[in-house]
Amino acid sequence: MAKNFQQQTFDENELITIRREKLKGFIDKGIEPFGARYEISHHASDVRAEFGEIEGEVDAGEVSVAGRLMAIRGHGKASFATLADKSGSIQIYFKLDILGEEKYSEFKLLDIGDIIGLRGQVFKTKRGELTVRVEDFKILSKSLRPLPEKFHGLKDVEIRYRQRYLDLIMNPEVRETFIKRNKIIKSIRKYLDDRDFLEVATPVLSTIAGGAAARPFITHHNALDADLYLRIATELNLKRLIVGGFERVYELGRVFRNEGMDVRHNPEFSSVEIYQAYADYRDLIEVTKGIVCAAALAVNGTTKISYLGVEMDLSETPQLSMNDAVKNKTGKDFLSCENVEEARAMADELGVPYEKRFGIGGILNAVFEAKVEDDLIQPIFITHHPTEISPLAKKNFDDPRVTDRFEFFVYGRELANGFTELNDPIDQRARFEEQLKQREAGDEEAHVMDEDFIRALEYGMPPTGGLGIGVDRLVMLLTDSPSIRDVLLFPTMKVIAE
Fold this sequence. Notes:
Blueprint (H helix, E strand, L loop, with lengths): L1 H27 L15 H8 L9 E13 L4 E8 L2 E8 H4 L1 H7 L7 E10 L5 E12 L15 H6 L1 H7 L1 H22 L4 E2 L5 E2 L11 E4 L4 E5 L4 H9 L4 E9 L11 E10 L3 H20 L3 E4 L2 E4 L5 E3 H9 L9 H11 L9 H13 L7 E4 L21 E6 L2 E8 L4 H16 L10 H8 L5 E7 H8 L20
Parallel strand pairs: 3-5, 6-10, 14-15
Antiparallel strand pairs: 1-2, 1-4, 2-3, 4-5, 7-9, 8-9, 10-11, 11-18, 12-13, 15-16, 16-17, 17-18
């Protein structure tokens, strides 16, 4: 294996040397090999749309195109090549008789990977391939490194993620994923803007990390001589705005959590958080449905999708309480327990581990995560999470052991989390104090006390429904991507020595 790597490295170094010699060839001719502006009249798709129906080898019209050379075939007095741009690819034709000896000698200095601009006539070859006959061209950027061998392409996922630029060059379908991502984000904004939600921006740096159960990244501000945290959620600041009189707000942006990495988690990711005054969790369930279905329609034209081979309809979304979901799967009714010992015995019987600090609600959640969550393949809203694990959600009026909260699951993954917001400052302080006890007991993800947020609630926050949606997971779902790294242009990677 080491020998193959050394041979590959040697071959690449040899090719780089040859390319640098060609670079010098351009310079010796007085040609700048890293050009400037180039006027483009058509992209590859425009050429196909405008001239696709022409017949025969007659000249159909002049075009000016630019892009990257992805293949060169023949090096005699005439050569065909493939030029790729953002819209696709088009065949181009270089001929000595048309270009002349001097210009054709420049063509001999071109390599696969070079970016050129060209002007020429569109025609069809005898085989019916739409082609641009080059009448003039200009080197715009000399590629000093060889692209991966075209037949095998770029398959190594480590290289694809670390060198996304190379991935985008070699795998056009990857570009399509990120075009769809853009459409999804636009659809989210349009859905909310059309319903009178106001997009806002809140700080990324904060003196307190709050709004979610997660470990933060810590940095230091030199001028203030103070530690600051990268935000783990936008929730608390958005609810401050609800207190201030905005009735519908949202923020779509990056949040940061100092946690592990897997196919669903990246330390920095995109979310959209939404808050609506005078609403409750039931209204936000409808907003969730609306956003997800609108995004599906925007990129796929239907709410019926296939994800990793599983067919599903995103418009069909039943609701089930967490306790009922656990009871249906295990036969155990944790909310019937009269004390925590009874809940522990049930969990022990099911073989589900739990921490000593867990109450009935914490144990119920542990069983849900261990026995139920992975099997929630079809879209479903799980509701009424235990109060113990929901420090910012309002208690259910009929059963204060649970909250008016929901999570939206698809393919065993949480896609959205929402609830009727807690607007009682006295209850909120008690919840924060309970979270502090959990931190002291070893839970590094438990909330810290946020005195200013409690102060804001003391001025009065109207009944409010809140919602957070994982944008990256939504993109994964709608682009049939198995890993979050497939939908992040530059995912976080393990640091390796160069």
